[in-house]
Records
---
Amino acid sequence: MPPVNPVDPQRDVLLVVDVQNDFCPGGALAVPGGDAVVPAANALVARFEHVVLTQDWHPPGHLSFASSHPGRAPFETVEFDYGAQTLWPDHCVQGSAGAALHAGLDAKRAELVVRKGFRPRIDSYSAFCENDRVSPTGLAGYLRERGFTRVFLCGLATDYCVAFSALDARRLHFEAVVLLDACRAIDLGGSLDQALASMRAAGVVLAQSADLG
């Protein structure tokens, strides 16, 4: 693994991805051990000068919900205009308790909360771009205007929103470091191994919080 240079408050930002109730045990789309990222994320928040959060934020009846497609079941894959899409249980519906950030997450120092997936007919995994790959969230412009060049990522889930965000960070010419001990995966049909391989190929540094020194 390439070495991780010390955190630089002038150019580094921590991106905490989707640490929300619906992705934690008891939630509508619970990631195994999802709540275990909370203390790890909080320890990272304490080390970074600059923190950004993301929040899945779907309207009722979102296109990615299996319930919006009679006869379909959660975790089936279908083809939409923008490509292959996994159908999910209804989750992170705007204003619901499931969409709220985990109560234990230290969110008070977040400088920005990026809500994604709010377009009714496009899902969004990445913090940077919706799944149609052309609708930006505005995060890249925000980071550039602030002068950030390296993004550290943690949260949920490793193989979906974290990985897509890291890959987009590289595509948009940011350095990207995923802190795996502060993430948890869904691992749907080998999705974790595939995501890890894709991130490595794109130049994403896969590290542990301890590697920060």
---
Amino acid sequence: MLPLRNHWALFGGAVEPGEEGHGAILREIQEELNYTPTQCTWYHEAIFVLPRRENRVVRKVFYKIPISPGDVETMILSEGSDMRLMTVAELTRLPRIAPWDLSVVLMHAREETIFPDGW
């Protein structure tokens, strides 16, 4: 588990033994939101070395799962304390948000500027 309590973060979790990343995110979304995505594609990977008493290397893999407000209405939160759709402007004003999650949301929001020729 990453060392952030009382922070907003994207849904997800750890890959279990014998599992691949794609299967893990589908399982995690089902467990955390009782929701089965109709689409799920790899988006970004990053490795972070967290500055703690003993540095900890964390590999994060992000998947793109398109949802609509109607999808959110069907979700049942079973992990975490809250969920909601937010704009990028709202996210950047939050005092507590997982920085790695915010960075990938900003990258996604600015794709056309950052990667004008596509991936």
---
Amino acid sequence: MRIRRDDFEQLVGRALDDLPEEFARAIENVAVVVEDEPTDELLLEMGMDPEYDDLLGLYQGVPLPERDSGYSALPDRIVIFRGPIGRACDTRRQAIQEIRDTVVHELGHYFGFEEDELPY
């Protein structure tokens, strides 16, 4: 399914707006951005095959539990990839759910959860 970039960005914004308040309040210094596709280099760096694997989202930063009191850095970054999510979904409803799931998944990494601890 193809979603226009501005619509996709609005859906990502809505997913962030719909977060439970206690989680939304705990998020600091995180930039959430939309990119069309992950690069082949990024996929290879993550041990993925650019020919067959799709990456829906990515957290880049230092998870909260790993920070000490002197931590100071550029904002952490969550990237939501429009192309792979569009390819994974047949309907707009599925895309909305996948965007929400991906946003929550990547925020889980920000909060310190490992891949096998996350629900999505």
---
Amino acid sequence: MKNSRRSSGRLLLLGGLFLLASCLLSLALGSSRIPLSQILRILTGGEGEGADALIFRHVRLPRTLGCLVCGAALSVSGAVIQGVLANRLAAPGIIGVNAGAALAVTLCAAAGFSSLWAPLWAFAGAFAAVLTLALGARAWGASRGTVLLMGVALNSLLNALSDTVITFRPELAALRHDFKVGDLAALRPATLLPAGLLAAVALLILFTLYNELDLLNLGEEGARALGMDTLRVRLMFLFLAALLAGCAVSLAGLLSFVGLIVPHTVRRLKGRSPGSFLPLCALFGAGFLTLCDTLARTLFSPYELPAGILMAYLGVPFFLFLLVRTKGGHARDRA
């Protein structure tokens, strides 16, 4: 037990250092570079209203904060959904959760609601999508592989519905494009605070429920034998996972594969030490997306690649590798 706690402590420290390094790179690099010494002066109030200070406060800092919120939210959401659906290949961007959130936000814009309502609309769409998938799989007794295929089909249907809305409301085409590519440059500061607060609340609640998530991983019969009301607990986890995915989509659009890559990587690093899985997913997910966004906007300078496109280049090979290795999600991770 002591060794497990020591290992978890080391990983939390590693995750914190990785997150710090990613944030500093995100704040410093871009079309114009800001030295770290100047960043420290701006943060401590020693820098006035120069060009670097304005760029830092109005561009770099909101974008970095958005990366942190979206990365942590999508990673933890993916980890929870994988546990609830008992399929390690399930992730918000693959099984239609993100697409449900995007459809809801598109409908929100089409109905003329303020962007401040976007996080709640996105949550409603994400929760409806994941609940439809979970209840459908339960009613039909679907296998884990079938659940994944159902999610892919649901994802395509929800994307088609979004495109249908755009067909009748072509003035929303720019919004739909931003959602499809997953671009942090299109982040709206007006939605950052409400989405960030909702995500923080959901994360804090989930961090206290790691025992319940571990019990769900024992399977339906094992969890019930230990006295768990599995239906109520699954719905609670799906509610919180959908809230996290909805917050991320309302800020940055369809950032695929974050909720797949990070939980698998953390499982390999963590092994079987209990209690720290979701916080580690949050730390590494926030740092990973922040680093990817920094690379996306600097690798091809002066051109800026949307972060969602870079994530697709990274995520598709990773998904195919896992698909072969786990036989469609059936095989248990041996870590």
